[in-house]
Structure formats: structure tokens, C-alpha cells
Amino acid sequence: MRRGQRHETTLVFMIVLFAFAASFATIPNVHAQAPKAARHLAIRGVYGGVPVEILDRGASLKDYGINAVWIGSDGLTKAAIDRLHAQGAKVFAEFNTMHASGYLKDHPDAAPIGIDGNPCPPPDGWQGVCPTHPGYRAWRMDAFRKALATHEIDGIWLDYHHAHASWEQAEPNMPETCFCPRCVNQFAREAKVQLPNASPAEIAHAVLSAHKEKWVDWRCGVFTGWVREFRDIRNKTRPKALLGTFHCPWTANERDGAIRNRLAIDLKAQAPYIDVFSPMPYHARFGHANDPAWVERTVTALGEHLGIKGIEGEPKQIWPIVQLTEWGEPVPLEQVAEVIHHGARAPATGMTIFVWGPLSKDRAKLERVGELYRSLQP
Q1: Residues 123-138: pLDDT tens digits?
Q2: Staple partner for 166: which of 76, 126, 139, 330, CB 3.0–4.6 Å?
Q3: Is residue 363 part of a domain?
């Protein structure tokens, strides 16, 4: 071949190669829609009950990559736990701390008091309880101890452990509470502040104006004290069980610091007593329906806040609970991969899905979950 011919052949080859590459680049890449997970996940769970729909048709949880199930502590049974353990799955209980509102029927003095000195109506129907009521606290601690002592569970997660509020929505409703005489007197004594001898409304005003910072610190301390007691009970009753918490996903500065200022959640203070933090970044429910990457940003921010990196051997772990079913806003099938992969990024080392009931009825979505969970297995 002459030199000129070789040059022409080379030029034609390069043009064809470039055209092929350009056309290939225009082919849609379905995997580009979801970022690759940073690692395999040790825990791949579902929240909301035993997945009998899988088991009853002869399939196994392993077929779907599921190795953990969260069940409400009131719904725990030996048969369910044994069935899940036989599948190689861990069983975690969800324990309601501050939202067991049935207690108020016979103990109206446990209702949170608002800034007007009257029982605060339940915001959007979410009824909380006064955190210093001794009877209520003893009742919840007894129930917590019983759940651990009675059932062979692998861990127990605190839920609704926050002040009287409805925050699980795009626009939260968080009234200022609790200004009952018990709380106010305990605050004055423990925070060493002088409060006026005045009406309940005037005392509440004084607390929120002259003593706001001390009030917030004190309230957070009350809720952290509950966590410390839960930890002590776990240590004495079932020490190998994990203690986790489902909690508000907001950052420390979000909504004017509402996670501490209104909800009384101090995650750094609770960290010495908690093994696993499970933020609840329900992207569709919380106004981020078109932004699944918000899940990853939330988990990343939590890791930075608590100094958790998601590396092997860390004493604290982050396992977010992500939304894949409708609650106010739907989560479409094509978004499932994005949500799971964003939730699986470091510092997360595990995750669970909200919520099993609706997911079990959506076979296409469930099969997609299985495909993704299997891909995240070590």
C-alpha cells in the first residue's frame, strides 16, 4: 500500500471510529440514572412486619437480598421471630417512646402543656406526652424491658423519641411545650434559674425569652436521659442486642435548629448510648419528591455531624430508612434505584425500606428492590 493510501485509510478509520463513539454516547444508559453504591451493605432490611407474601409463595428472603426485618414491639411473636431467624434474617423491634398516647386516657396530667398554660392540642393529630411525667416514663421503661426480656431479638430501635410535634411532613407543626408545673419547676431547679411567680403563660414567656438557651439544653437533656436509661436496661437485659433510633433527618442548622430547639433531639449527646442511627429521609414525604439525592446529602451530613465514616470496625453505624412507597407523595418505580443507591452511600453501612405493607402489593417494585438488594450483598 502506498503512503497516500495508508494516510487515507487511516483518516477514514478515524472518522468511522469517531462517528461510532458519538452514536454510542447517545444511547440512553439506564444505570446512569442511579449513582453506583459506594459499598456493599451489611444490613438490607424492610420495615413494617414479616414479609409473609414472599415466604408464602415458596421464595426466600435471600432471593430478595433481605437480611433484616423491623417489627413493632407490640407485634413481636416467637413464631414470627423463629421464622425470620430460620431465613437467616435479623429481627429488630421498633419501640414507641413518646407517642403512646393511650396513656393519657387514664392520666390526663401527662398531656404536654402549651405556652398558654393549657394542654396543647395534638399537632395534626400527633399526640405526644410530657417527658417528665414519672408514671409514663416508668411505664415505657417497663415495656422496653419486657420486649427485650421476652423476645429473642437482635436489636431494638427507639421511635417517636422527640417532643410533642408533627414533623414527619413537608411543613412541620412544632408547638412549644411542655410548660406544666412539673417541667417548669424541674427546669428551674436543675438549670438554676429564677422564674417569676406568675401565670403559666407569663412563666412560659419568661422561659422562652430570658432563658431560651438553657431551656433547650435542659429539654434535650431530659430526652437524652431517657436514652441513657434505655441503654442501661438493654445492657442488663439483652446486652448483645443493638440499640438504634429512628430520628428526624434534619441537620443541626436546618429550620433554625429545630431538631434541638423544638424536637429536643441532641444526637451528639445521645451518641454514647446509641449503636445505630437511622435517619428518616423520606424524600417524597418531605418535599423532595424529585430529588432523591437529598437522601444521600442527609446521610452524609449526619456522618459529618457525628464523626461516623462508615468504615469497618466503627462503634457507631448509620442505617437510613428510605421511602419507596406512597405516603402523601408517590415514589415511582423508575426512582427506586436512585433512592436505594443514594441511601447506600457511605457513611451508611446498612439500610431499611419504608414500608413493607404497600411494597408487598407492588410486585414490579418489589422485584426491583430484590435486584438492587442482591447487588448490594457482600
Answers
A1: 999 999 999 999 999 9
A2: 126
A3: yes
Indicate the pTM of the whole model: 0.90
Give the E-state strand segments of the chain in sequence order. Answer: 43-47, 68-72, 90-96, 155-159, 242-247, 276-279, 317-318, 321-323, 350-354
Retrieve residue 177's grid coordinates: 411545650
Q: What DSSP designation does 96 have?
A: E
In a domain, residue 77? The reply is: yes
Give tens-digit pLDDT for 151-175.
999 999 999 999 999 999 999 999 9
CATH number at residue 349: 3.20.20.80
In-domain check, residue 195: yes
The whole-chain average pLDDT of the chain stands at 92
Instruction: Sort strands 321-323 and 317-318 into parallel, antiparallel or unpaired.
Output: unpaired
d(CA 172, CA 357): 25
The domain in which residue 285 lies consists of 43-375
Cis peptide before 69 (omega within 30 of 0): no
| 369 close to 359: Cβ distance less than 8 angstroms | yes
138: number of Cβ within 10 Å: 10
Residue 148 lies in a domain: yes
For residues 309 and 320, give the distance between their C-alpha atoms in angstroms, rounded to a whole number. Answer: 14
DSSP, collapsed to helix, strand or coil, labels residue 166 as strand
Whether 283 and 295 have beta carbons less than 8 Å apart is answered as yes
Helix (H, G, I), strand (E, B) or coil at 157: strand
Q: Which residue(s) pair with 276 in the sheet?
A: 244, 317
Domain tally, the chain:
1
Q: What's CA 123's distance to the chain center, in Å? A: 20
**Which of the pair, 15 or 160, is modelled with greater confidence?**
160
What's the rounded Cα separation, in Å, for the pair 186 and 260?
19
Q: For residue 230, is pLDDT > 90?
A: yes
How many Cβ atoms sit within 10 Å of the Cβ of residue 29?
7
pLDDT digits (tens, 9 = 90+) for 38-93: 468 999 999 999 999 999 999 999 999 999 999 999 999 999 999 999 999 999 99
Helix, strand or coil, per DSSP, at residue 288: coil
Is residue 285 helix, strand or coil? coil
